Amino acid sequence: MSYLESLRVFVRVIELGSITAGGRDLRLSPAVASNRIKDLENRFGVRLLNRTTRKLTPTEIGRAFYDHAQRVIETLDEAEAVVSSFSGKPQGVVRLTAPLGVGRRLIAPLIPSFCAENPGIDIRLRLSDRSVNIVEDGIDLAFFLGEPADSSLKWRKIADCPRLLVAAPDYLAAHGTPQKPDDLQQHNCLLLRYPRSPEYFWVLQTEDGPLKMMVSGRFDTDDGDVLTEWALSGQGIANRPAYEVAEHLKAGRLIEILPENRPPPAQFGCLTPHRRLQDPKVRMFADVAVRELKKLF
User: Fold this and answer.
1) Per-residue confidence (pLDDT) for residue 74, from 0 to 100
2) Which of 63, 75, 78, 241 is deepest in the core (most CB within 10 A)?
3) Burial (Cβ within 10 Å: 0-12, 13-18, ≥19) of residue 173
4) What single string gives the DSSP state of each residue in 96-148?
5) Is the pLDDT of residue 27 over 90?
6) Family, per the entry (predicted)?
7) CATH entry 3.40.190.10 includes domain 163-264
8) How far is CA 17 from CA 31, 57, 93, 213, in A?
């Protein structure tokens, strides 16, 4: 078993780019993860990784070994899933990812009760508003807002998620309330952006169909919750999912603007690699999440 564990560590180290990250993902200290790699290198008498103070890369032999080791781990996981489907007691780890706001408000609350009902299953939830490579990062289930771009992934729609343009009363009192989409060009639009992201735009619904609006602003961030906080503090106009600002609208802390020209709803659903569809524990969590989340929309 220790050899298989070492294989798993090696695969995750290559996929995540560092011994520290690979070990953390498997709940191992950097020292233990490093020793797992050394065990493999000692076993074969070859160097699998080139290590420098700044970078870790596989050697030519290490890259070839990774390709085969990855298939071994996938085959083992699939075999365990088959056994679990017959035993009726799924076991193992389910790796989830979600945008920050979705994960905090919608996904995280589902996990404690699911794990209590399924004591053999552990959940690892990773939250990020940045783009995630589901296959390379070894994700079992990704919750997603928007249009999935990768057709090789299985998409399961949960609901359409309305989006709203919102601003604080103080901001609107100081800068005026936009009356038509073109007015947004005179306002500080709070932007969700990432490194190397394309030119920024919002899409609004009009009588003539979707309108692509080029917008700009003095602030941008890769964290959606920060946008909401900026909007609440009167810094500008934000484009946010309705569920994230519903309480603020109800309390009057935010006001919806251009209600006749709302952004199109974002699709909310979950993505999974096709090869993981038959894994009972992944399917079980997906079923629970879809059932419970549909109640909220």
Assistant:
1) 77
2) 241
3) exposed
4) EEE-HHHIIIIIGGGHHHHHHH-TTEEEEEEE-SS---TTTTT-SEEEEES--
5) no
6) Belongs to the LysR transcriptional regulatory family.
7) yes
8) 16, 7, 21, 38
Q: Is the dihedral of CA 192, 194, 199, 204 positive or negative?
A: negative
Cα–Cα distance for residue pair 210/189, rounded to 1 Å: 19
Residue 45 identity (one-letter amino acid): G
Alpha helices per DSSP H over the chain: 2-16, 19-25, 30-44, 60-87, 100-102, 111-117, 169-175, 224-232, 242-251, 280-294
C-alpha 206/C-alpha 201 separation (Å) is 15
Q: For residue 183, how far is the Cα from the chain centroid?
A: 33
Instruction: Specify the fold of 90-160+266-297.
Output: D-Maltodextrin-Binding Protein; domain 2 (3.40.190)
Question: What are the start and end residues of each CATH 1.10.10.10 domain in the chain?
Answer: 1-88
Helices 2-16/60-87 angle, 10° precision: 120
Give the separation between CA 202 and CA 210, rounded to whole angstroms: 10
- Residue 217: pLDDT above 70? yes
Distance of CA 145 to the CA centre of its chain: 9
pTM of the model: 0.67
Distance CA 23, CA 30 (A): 6
244 in helix, strand or coil?
helix
The residues with which 202 forms a beta bridge, in sequence order, are 213
pLDDT over threshold 60, residue 260:
yes
Where in the chain do CATH 3.40.190.10 domains reside? 90-160+266-297, 163-264
Q: Give how far Cα 69 sits from Cα of 12, 61, 72, Å.
A: 10, 12, 5
What's the distance, CA 111 to chain centroid?
Answer: 16
**Contact indicator for 275, 170 with CB cutoff of 8 Å:** no
Q: Do 192 and 224 meet the contact criterion of CB atoms below 8 Å apart?
A: yes
